[in-house]
Amino acid sequence: MHLCMVSGQAAQAQCTQPVTHLSGTVQIGCTEVSVTPGGETGSQNFCGIGPYVLGDNPGGSFTFTFSPPVSGVTIGLSVVNNFPNLAVEEVEFEVNGAFYPITVPGTTHSCATSTCVILPNGRVGAPPSINGPFFAGWEDQPITETINSLKITNVVTLGYPAGFILSLRFCESCCATDAGMLSGSPLQACTPQSASFSPATQTNLEPDDLLQYILYTNANDPEGSLLATSNTPGFAFNPATMQVGLTYYVAAIAGNNLNGNVDLDDPCLDISNAIEIEWNAQPSVSFSVANPAVCLGDCLTFDVALTGTPPFILTYITGSVGPQTQTFIANIGTLEVCPPIGIPPGSVTLAAVSLTDANCVCE
């Protein structure tokens, strides 16, 4: 099973995984969260909001990166300051390296004397206060994008504010999709026969998932070298796109069902281990003789030419006699045919019944 983001999950729900470390990388659930402070920063908790303090002039920031990406965050703010003509600070958000304008208001923070507001420039600020002290706050501010990185900055627009306090929770979505495992040794198949293998085991599918099997050419790039897809564990040889003697790969693949096929763009796409498969051409045999005439009681030696991989086992008949078997350790050899005593003059037929090489059987 692999872990990854599911886009759009928990878009309106409060995220439940808290981030509390001030720097470095910590595994939280199935997500690695890295925290990088910048500028004036510190640590404090105030009425359930914390532990991040984004300080005064010239302002501070915290950058959070998530691996795998998360499907959203909820943010708590406290002690955001706006003292006209004295000290003003604004909260700016960047998602995946780009400015993110806030459009959805958060809920009132229970300890705040006022609620933060969305500013025309897309930042979050506090309504003006001329009396102070002033504690503008905001709980459960959602950002519901797919997030690889989130930077939150205290932008000081006037004076020397005291900074504000920040808490962060994220919506974790671990993929349950698992294409499982394929068992078995490398496969050898003979054209034009299909190659079959055992179904994948230890699979796990989400409700909208589909399990299929893929045939591809590059072990390091299954999706980019895909030749064929099957709903069952088996593939036919296609002479238009395939060659004998080359190594191909088969694997199970699982992901969202898109019009009857696995969606290769599903962020939870999973591919099993691979099994090598190689198709071989069926062997062939041809007979030749310089002078096919033979006297009664004598024998005739045929030159035998074989295609395929030695050793070969040839089963043949001569007229009404047979079948007989002879082994060849190379691609050329000879075969002695002795017409039976008492046979009337005329033609004697030499015909191959079956031929087996190291890989295939031709009948």
Please describe what this structure looks like.
The chain has 363 residues and is mainly β. It contains no helices and 32 strands. The protein has strands at residues 17-19, 24-28, 31-39, 41-43, 52-54, 60-70, 73-80, 82-83, 87-95, 98-99, 114-115, 117-118, 124-125, 136-143, 147-159, 164-170, 187-190, 195-196, 209-216, 226-230, 234-235, 247-258, 261-262, 270-271, 275-280, 284-288, 300-307, 312-318, 321-328, 332-337, 350-356, 361-362. Strands 1, 4, 5, 7, 11, 14 and 16 form a seven-stranded mixed sheet that branches. The chain is rod-shaped.
Biggest sheet features: 7 strands, mixed
Work out the helix count: 0
Total number of β-strand segments?
32
Could you tell me the mean pLDDT? 86
The secondary structure category is mainly beta
Beta-strand content:
over 45%
Radius of gyration: 37 Å
Q: Report low-confidence residues grouped into runs of 5 or more.
A: 1-13
Helix content percent band: under 10%
The N- and C-terminal alpha carbons lie at a distance of: 44 Å
The outline comes out as: rod-shaped
Q: Helix and strand layout, with pairings?
A:
Blueprint: E1 17-19, E2 24-28, E3 31-39, E4 41-43, E5 52-54, E6 60-70, E7 73-80, E8 82-83, E9 87-95, E10 98-99, E11 114-115, E12 117-118, E13 124-125, E14 136-143, E15 147-159, E16 164-170, E17 187-190, E18 195-196, E19 209-216, E20 226-230, E21 234-235, E22 247-258, E23 261-262, E24 270-271, E25 275-280, E26 284-288, E27 300-307, E28 312-318, E29 321-328, E30 332-337, E31 350-356, E32 361-362
Parallel strand pairs: 11-14, 17-25
Antiparallel strand pairs: 1-16, 2-3, 3-6, 4-5, 5-16, 6-15, 7-14, 7-16, 8-9, 9-10, 9-15, 12-13, 18-21, 19-20, 19-22, 22-23, 22-24, 22-25, 26-27, 27-30, 28-29, 28-31, 31-32
